[in-house]
Write the structure tokens for this entry.
Amino acid sequence: MSGSNDAQFKLELKRLIVHACNKDLAPESIRDDEPLIGGDAALGLDSLDVLQINVAIFQRHGVRIDDGKHARRVMKSINTLADFIRPGH
């Protein structure tokens, strides 16, 4: 099953993001398809946040996001991040 089809996995990712970036909001309030990075995103993650999330994902899942452009694609939303970490078979 791909990551975006696993609600429990996506909730785990939301918790990881909130914790890694010290955000003061309920992980459940993050929509699966909303933008994560940029000024128009509800979370408004910046490059430092992306780096912190990258480290947390690597430590937890052993998956590394290569560079800033790749991170912007992968972290477009919870759904895209979940599918990157757990692609469908």
